[in-house]
Amino acid sequence: MPTERGFVAALGLSQLVSWGTLYYSFPLIGEAMINDMGWSRTDIYGAATLGLLAAALAAYPIGSLIDRGHGRKLMGGATIAASLALVAWSNIQTTTALYAVIITLGILQAALSYEPAFAVTVRQFGAQQSRSAITSITLWAGFSSTLFVPLLQFMLDGWGWRGALLALALINTVIAAPLYLWAIRPAKVENSRLPKVVSSERMSIRPVLCNPRFYLLSICFCMYMALFSGFTYHIYPLLIALASDTQSVVFAIALIGPAQVAARMLMLLFKKITIVRLGLSAGITFPLAIMMLKVPTTAFTIASACILYGAANGIFTIVRGMAVPELLSHQNYGRINGIMLVPMSLTRAAAPWIIAQYWTLSGSPDGTIHLMLVFAMLIPIMFAAAISANRTR
Q: Which domains does the chain carry?
């Protein structure tokens, strides 16, 4: 079995590939399909919405499976299945086939996103020792957009969207699947090394569900998911509409990854800073990033927006990953996180479609910016309310 450093490197690299091939690829592939197939933006992002809805339904069962020690089979198998789905996507001819493929990918994404990776990490190292491991894993995965956005643009220019999907399937199979299977301990090994984690599965989660902090944090994370999903799916076409310069847009989006990594590296240097302070500081930065899109558009302003967003997202990802063990309960990470993920995933699913629909009806990107600004402002407000509510109680 790998050492702790080996586990972190393997899971981090596999997460980098999973996010790059299954999530960050969609906006670029979607735009290429709109131009090639003649389908509407609503058609494309309607498929994305249904895929995210499917991910929401799968969140709690996946968390429960990881709590029972099936993380290795789950993440390894889902990676292989996702590669097959990407191959199927490259051969579609109708919107019905597109919807079927994206719904399938949505379910598989639920097993390959940060949440199951965090749950596996907490299970293997325990709640107290997992913070630095989670931070390091996200350092690796933070380069996903930096690597895959320009790489995918290169593949689209040379091979078209069908060839690009086949290349993504190959990358996913060759790199991510073996790393998941190698790094994550089998259930029987976990049982022998971490008996306290296993015994916690039988403990009740009712006290957490009676805590008002649970619900206020859930609302906060729903707003974060709405912003994250809307920004991820629409930032490319939004910046193209604002700047009309593909090279500047691709360069700006590629800066999100380094900004995430830089913010997380600062976290490693200041390990004693609390999750509360991290959440508030990152939350305040989100609306500042979106407001940069409202000033006169230049290469500098769109790059600044992406850098601020990337830094805030890099920190808030850690906050979200550690919220359950540090702010709610050390026990039953997978189940508690799975319950929170249901409304979060529903919000993440609805946001891209709502934004696309509003953009189509208004014919202007300004409404998209205003809507994302509302989401961004609610993040620090609800996070502060969650902390205050618990102290009062």
A: 4-392 (1.20.1250.20)
